[in-house]
Amino acid sequence: MDLVEDLRLNPYLNKVLEGGTVVEYSAHLVTESGFKGVLKKPYGNGFLVVGDAAGFLLNTGFTIRGVDMAVESGRLAAEAVSEAHERGGNSEELLSSYKKLLDESFIMKNIKKFSKARDFLLNEEIYKSYVNLACLTANGIYDESEEAKRAFESFKDAMSREGLSFFNLIKNAWEAYRSI
Amino acid sequence: MGGVQVNMSERLSIEKRLSLTSFKIHDQPHIIVDYEKCKGCSMPCVISCPAGLYSIDEKGKLKFNYEGCLECGACRLVCPNKAIKWEYPLGGFGVWYKLG
Q1: CA-to-CA distance for A102 and A105, rounded, in angstroms?
Q2: Tens digit of pLDDT per residue, chain A (180 long)?
Q3: Residues of B with CB below 8 A from A26's CB?
Q4: Distance from CA of A176 to the nearest CA of B (A)
Q5: What pLDDT digit, counting tens, does each position of A1-26 carry?
Q6: How many alpha carbons fall within 13 Å on the CB side of residue B66?
Q7: Which of A53, A90, A137, A144 lies 20 to 30 A from A66 at CA?
């Protein structure tokens, strides 16, 4: 609730917005389903779909973005519409150039690049067990009880306390390398 | 276009921001909170609601008002105890976005 005002009042953005006005306050949720969530055909007779409605969102595991894609898809849609009008109509066939523009833009290039990310990021182990694993390992390393543990021992103990297998750990690391 | 002329470097209160949006309030709430389930909860709804409709009173109890709901659905998703029954208001009622 306060974030949006913080953003608007950010000195850099505020300068850009100078002379503007606030016309409406709104909020909505956006869906983020990676490449699978992107509409295969974001156009039809007389309409084009832009922004999050068409699934243009990107979760890289570290950042989630979509506003830039909403702006760019809107711009590309305008381009497609004006081209279609020049060719005399707004039929599905004439508007299909929108799809081509999207595929060539940073929108689809980025979404395709991260097409494997969604399935990997749905794995709850990476948010729960692996966080605990890091904490427990650090705990073991800095522990000063009678029997001092070597780093790998702490790691091994943490693994068994979290019920994790080495095989899974390596598998997940490989998947992370491949997807994000 | 509507809107109020505001000093762009001034922080707008949530009340002022909500006054820019149109609502047609139905007398039946479209969100029902089961306060029994809120006991011991960290109440993420309070910070998640973009309209600031959830608050905590002096006794530490959750307070909620459905009037001013922007119908984003965030509260339903963040509620760890599934205490929020959420449905869209009856057709024609609720928030009335004019600019999307």
Answers
A1: 5
A2: 788 999 999 999 999 988 888 889 999 898 888 999 999 999 999 999 999 999 999 999 999 999 999 999 999 999 999 999 999 999 999 999 999 999 999 999 999 999 999 999 998 888 989 999 999 999 999 999 888 889 999 999 999 999 999 999 999 999 999 999
A3: 21, 70, 95, 97, 99-100
A4: 26
A5: 788 999 999 999 999 988 888 889 99
A6: 21
A7: A90
pTM: 0.75
Query: Which residues of A are less than 8 Å from B1 in CB distance?
Result: 23
- Burial class of residue B70 in the structure, from the number of CB atoms within 10 Å of its CB (0-12 exposed, 13-18 middle, 19+ buried): buried
Residues whose CB falls within 8 Å of the CB of residue B43, separated by 6 or more in sequence, listed in order: B54, B56, B62
HEC secondary structure over B73-100: CHHHHHCCCCCEEECCCCCCCEEECCCC
Q: What pLDDT is stored for residue B33 in this prediction?
A: 96
- Terminal-to-terminal C-alpha distance of chain A: 30
Q: How far is B64 from chain A (nearest CA, A)?
A: 15
A73 closest CA partner among A38, A33, A46, A45: A38
